[in-house]
Design a protein that fits this description.
Blueprint: H1 2-28, H2 40-58, H3 64-90, H4 96-122, H5 125-152, H6 175-196, H7 200-212, H8 215-232, H9 234-254, H10 256-266, H11 268-277, H12 282-286, H13 294-302, H14 306-311, H15 322-346, H16 351-367, H17 375-387
Helix pairs in contact: 1-2, 1-4, 1-5, 2-4, 3-4, 3-15, 4-17, 5-7, 6-7, 6-8, 6-16, 6-17, 7-8, 8-9, 10-11, 15-16
Length: about 400
């Protein structure tokens, strides 16, 4: 029994380290001529996925939630393949490689969850604690690269944007992926502080989110800590929130001209106001220009028959807004059961954190892209779910294996 615990621990620990290493290397490698990111990390995840699928074939002790996720993946594959065949026959333009590649990206997070959650159940408490320590190390390394190598030393490899806009990225290759990484790390940091009274993971995630330079990271870096204080420490939360708002208002009034000038230099403010100055509109600014893809979405939808409307079949264009892109891929029926798979997974999160985490996660997927398709963050989502699961909400007084029982 102990040998299996060691085996599961080593497999998961190596996976976390290998993924973090691969993403770091990918983020430092030069981009392709069209701005595409290198595919270095994809080979690590491909090996992991093949290994997990082989493991699932022989692993017999699945709980009902895991079996439900497997059933959903199977149904989604069949309906998506059916829609793909209809779409390819009527319209064309997509290859079998496109079908396999996109379907794999969509379900990768669930494949990770099946392995991670089952592995955590097999480990003892001390092993689980070590896994989370490794994840925290990933957060600290990310923060170091953002704060020291990016913000302080101004190393171009750690700039979020290639032009002069403010932002410093860590070891995650893309902005959207990094924003989701920050959201997960912030919730993880809140949970760790609440249960274990350790503040460093939350501080590291907060600093990284403020420095990243994306709207999603900046807003959530402010919203999540405020939500956390108001929910778990209402008196302190109200005092901190009111005091912070009052101080910021006073500082903004006194130093308004200097602040505006400084933000324009950093292009933090000008990025948001430039579009408004040009008459683009608030919606376009908030969506980072993704509203221009509406015509492409309508055009792609016009190619669909009734079967494709229900079961999808593929998309010739991308809106970079996951709910709409997922609808084009899987159709209305597929989108519904795909979301059910997420609800089954998120149901493991303790109720105190579940709603707000789900709200921010799905909101990010509604207005942005690479949330459902984020292979980079799939493992970190699963680790947070395990950490904040209902059964692991309270750290036991004695080491035992009853947490995940």
């Amino acid at each position: 029994m102990y040998k299996y615990k060691d085996l599961y621990f080593m497999a998961l620990a190596i996976t976390v380290i290998a993924f973090a290493f691969a993403d770091t290397v990918t983020s430092l490698m030069p981009r392709g001529p069209a701005g595409e990111y290198p595919k270095f990390s994809i080979y690590f995840r491909m090996f992991f996925e093949v290994t997990v699928l082989c493991w699932l074939f022989f692993y017999k002790k699945m709980n009902k939630n895991n079996l439900l996720i497997i059933a959903i993946i199977s149904i989604l594959f069949l309906t998506y393949f059916f829609g793909f065949c209809i779409f390819s026959n009527n319209v064309g333009g997509l290859s079998l490689y496109d079908f396999i590649y996109l379907f794999n990206k969509y379900v990768f997070v669930f494949i990770c969850f099946l392995f991670v959650y089952s592995s955590m159940k097999k480990m003892g408490y001390s092993y689980r604690k070590k896994i989370f320590k490794i994840y925290e190390l990933v957060i600290y390394v990310y923060c170091f690269c953002t704060l020291v190598l990016g913000f302080i030393l101004k190393m171009p490899a750690f700039f979020t944007y290639e032009h002069a806009r403010f932002g410093f990225i860590g070891t995650i290759p893309a902005q959207n992926e990094a924003s989701l990484f920050i959201i997960i790390a912030l919730f993880y940091g809140c949970f760790v502080y609440r249960q274990e009274k350790r503040l460093l993971p939350l501080v590291a995630a907060f600093i990284s989110g403020i420095l990243l330079g994306t709207k999603a990271a900046f807003i959530t870096s402010i919203a999540i800590p405020i939500w956390f204080l108001l929910k778990f420490y209402p008196k302190t939360g109200r005092i901190v929130t009111i005091t912070a708002l009052a101080c910021l208002t006073i500082i903004a009034i006194i130093y308004s001209s200097q602040i505006v000038e400084y933000l324009y230099v950093l292009e933090a403010l000008s990025h948001f106001t430039h579009g408004l100055d040009k008459g683009v509109g608030v919606l376009s600014v908030l969506l980072s220009g993704r509203d221009v893809f509406w015509d492409d979405f309508i055009w792609n939808l016009s190619l669909y028959g009734n079967i494709n409307f229900l079961f999808g079949g593929g998309r010739l264009t991308a809106m970079e807004m996951d709910f709409f892109d997922t609808f084009l891929e899987f159709g209305l029926f597929g989108l519904i059961i795909y979301l059910i798979a997420y609800f089954v997974m998120f149901k493991n999160i303790t109720s105190k954190y579940r709603f707000f985490f789900s709200l921010l996660f799905f909101s990010a997927a509604f207005i942005g892209g690479h949330i459902f398709l984020s292979a980079v963050n799939a493992l970190y989502i699963c680790l947070f779910v395990c950490k904040a699961s209902e059964v692991d909400e309270y750290v036991p007084k004695r080491r035992n294996d009853a947490i995940f029982a």
